Amino acid sequence: MAVSKCARLSGPLIQELLNSVDNFLFDCDGVIWRGDQAIPGAPEVINLLKKNGKRVFFVTNNSTKTREMYAEKMTKLGFQAKTEEVFGTAYCSAVFLKHIANLDGKVYLIGGNALSKEFQKVGIQTVGSGPDPVFGGQSDWADVPLDPEVKAVVVGFDEHFSYMKLTKALKYLDNANCLFVGTNTDTRLPLEGGRAVPGTGCLVRAVETAAQRKAQIIGKPSHFMFDCVVSEYGIDPARTVMVGDRLDTDILLGSNCGLKTLLTLTGVCHLDEATAHQESHCPERTGMVPDYYVETIADLLPALQG
Ligand code: PLP
Ligand code: CA
Fold it and tell me: Which of 43, 62, 211, 258 could form a disulfide with 237 if both were Cys (CB 3.0 to 4.6 A apart)?
């Protein structure tokens, strides 16, 4: 039976979805955990899906952890998770530079240790991470020294982002042959109580504005994250569901890649945002309308335990 989009996933619909997919892609923050706390029931859901023969992958835009760090966090919170099931933007950026762009040179990195570790693992050296000295004025800016071996600029989450880093990135990117990669474009990182901090998208946009170039974006909704999963596991998009809390990244990624999509309301997006996209009948917004929604992924538990 055809179901209209944005349907509440409950009762027999849950079993119908479970029968129709072999693979689950889970976003992390807002879906399986919030900050350092697992969403209640989420570890049981993941573990039972695996027990029932489903393949589970974790797809996160957060570039501040390596695959190993994510697997360790998951294990600590009670999830059965393997390093190779994690597809974060730090790991996927390394895959892109090494295997798609065939980078032969160093990276000027605006980003943290997880990115440099993932790059090191594939044999790519980085320069630039960590704080820069404060510098004096316009005469200094013209003389910022460059490393001639740098052949790419990568922008991820960087708590030491500065005017100096922006200046260096601009100078590298003035060379049209220098690659330009952004891990993700999340604009804000929501905190408890309606508060938020600036996301990596703010840094990527700042560098794009200075360099007058567009970055190649690795994270959701770019299909590259899904391409990485497919190239390693050969999964069938038609038998895959993307579970996320964000319409403009997770749900749009799922729609872009021909996956089924499930919105969970434990994260940043509210149901009325999804219905507003649906009721707009605007072609550019239909990709942000999920097939299904749940209050929490724990709503899948009864069907998995049955
Ligand atoms: N980027 C950073 C730096 C974050 O801290 C987070 C969430 O904590 C995200 C991106 C979004 O991550 P996800 O794709 O798992 O929701
Ligand atoms: Ca999320």
Answer: 258
